[in-house]
Design a protein that fits this description.
The protein contains nine helices and seven strands. The protein is of the alpha/beta class and 253 residues long. Strands 3-2-1-4-6-5-7 form a seven-stranded mixed sheet, with helices on both faces. The model has no long low-confidence stretch (mean pLDDT 93).
């Protein structure tokens, strides 16, 4: 705990048997109260390794998608009475030791949500981020900042921390079950008036790191632009957009 706040790390996992233990070992266990992993229909030993490590493990018998995986993770974290929820990918692309800094910013009441940006600094390309992904990341971030009036350095990181209030308030069950879930959720955070902080995060790309192919990247990029457009329309008050509707489907325990 930090400031009496219960900290839970969630891990949306898919075929992460080669990197899960390494990621787990670098988590600051002295402040993290519990770890939850959802295995989204992996065909390797991810779930078995997770259980051996003492992680509270949930398994989707069939692959439901990255967004659906997170929905299960957040639901179970709230069920465990988390005050601060950190999403960490188990593929060791992000440095687990930053959990302390992320948690502190929320526990001290400075921000409602914190994201770790791979773009702040010069670590993204040095860490192995493919050039086309770096360019696409910068382009989409620039466009989204214009669309919603923010100044983030990156909208596409998968390393995030949220207060309990944020998770309970967002209609995340309206979001996609696919990769654009992350982007939808972040725009929801802004839309519903929560504060967001950024810290710099070194990144490590290797053959075990999770990634989506070029075709799915294009689909994601289109989804990002449509989400930004939806934000603008909802903000105008003229049309109801379900993911930006305060009465939309939330996690109810």
């Amino acid at each position: 705990m930090i400031n009496g706040k219960k900290i839970i790390v969630i891990m949306p996992a898919y075929n992460a048997e080669k990197t899960l233990k390494k990621t787990f070992n670098e988590i600051p266990h002295h402040i993290v109260d519990e770890i939850i992993l959802t295995d989204d229909g992996s065909v390797d030993k991810t779930a078995l390794i997770s259980k051996r490590l003492g992680i509270k493990t949930f398994v989707h018998k069939k692959n439901k998608g990255y967004g659906a995986n997170q929905k299960t993770c957040y639901k179970e974290a709230l069920r465990c009475n988390a005050d601060i929820i950190i999403m960490l990918h188990p593929d060791y692309q992000y440095n687990p030791r930053l959990i302390t800094a992320m948690s502190s910013l929320i526990a001290e009441g400075i921000y409602d949500a914190v994201i770790c940006s791979r773009i702040l600094g010069t670590g993204a390309l040095k860490g192995g981020m493919p050039l086309y992904k770096y360019i696409a990341n910068r382009f989409l971030t620039f466009i989204e900042n214009l669309m919603i009036g923010q100044k983030l350095s990156e909208y596409h990181t998968g390393y995030r921390a949220f207060s309990k209030k944020v998770i309970e308030s967002l209609p995340i069950l309206e979001n996609s079950d696919d990769f654009v879930f992350d982007n939808q959720m972040l725009l929801q955070v802004f839309y519903f008036g929560f504060s967001v902080g950024e810290i710099s995060c070194p990144t490590t790309y290797n053959k075990e790191s999770s990634s989506i192919n070029f075709t799915r990247s294009l689909k994601y990029g289109l989804g990002v632009l449509l989400t930004g457009l939806g934000y603008m329309i909802a903000n105008s008050g003229k049309i109801n957009i379900p993911i930006f509707n305060k009465n939309g489907k939330k996690i109810n325990l």
